[in-house]
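Dear colleague,

Thank you for sharing your sequence with our group. We've completed the structure prediction you requested, and as agreed, I am returning the results in plain text so they can be pasted directly into your records. Please verify that the sequence below matches your submission; if there's any discrepancy, let me know and we will rerun it promptly.
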Amino acid sequence: MEGGRPYSTFEHRGMRPEFDGLRAQMDSRFMGSVLAPGKRRINLVAICVNIFLPWIVFVSLFAVLSFSLHYQHPQVAWSLVALAFGSVLLAIFMAYQARRKNRDPMWYNFSAVTLLLATLLATSFGDMNFWNNMQPFYDVENLNTYPSVNPAREKGHQLMDAGRVYFTDGSGLDTRKAMGFKNKDIYCVAPISHGQDQPTSYDFWAVGINCCSGVSADFRCGDFNNPHARSGLRLMREDERAFFRLAVQQAEAAYNIKADYPLFFHWMQDPVSEMNSYRDAGFKYFLLGIFTHFSFNLFCVICAVVGFSKFG
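Please find the predicted structure tokens below.
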């Protein structure tokens, strides 16, 4: 106190210039560590959204295109794909709006890229998983099962809805009448017969690709050397059926036989196990896809955080 009057704030600070400088320096360092002048702040909400939203879109579309919705209601499945592309446009629009309002649009731009990538990957791999694994499973599952079929007595037009066929004891492959048709790949066929019986029409054929020479009567497809194999799983690939039909026509001409209503099967011992392997493969690739995409998307978000903080 000087003359009964306390020091004013201004006078007090004037008496301590060295402390004022130290305090200003500490305040500057502290604020710099929190606000990071010249760099973008870390937006935890944006980080969490970009970790999980593209992954959720990927998982949803991957499931939609891989499984029964694609098989039973394909229009609905592809409508959901279009909706996912709409979310990409929404992210682009939000980035544009943020730029107009002088806000940082970088996370919106990143969301647009990751959502587009998730949609494209889910569409491609989901459709591939469906055609290679799940559609053959659904096709055979929706067809009939026929036990105790004698290929020498039954006719093909009687079993047009067959998915799994169990032939009678004594049935097997007549490899002496095997034939191959070559169109890049070799499409191999061999009639399924019963003992020494000669049917009026050979309507049941075992098939395979690249498992015969194509120039002689040999057939090494499926369980051809399994003495317990007496069953067939229906061929469901429409793009292959025409080539197997040409191979049968060649066999008709070469061996002077008839095949009025040829049905094509994969020769095996246990059709149920084979059919379920398609389903198991479909679920395996689905699980592999969702975990792989989550890891990939997390890596992209981490790279984005580092890049935005360093080069912002």
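Summary note from our side: The beta strands are 144-149, 162-167, 171-173, 179-183, 185-194, 204-209, 231-234, 263-268.

Kind regards,
the structure core
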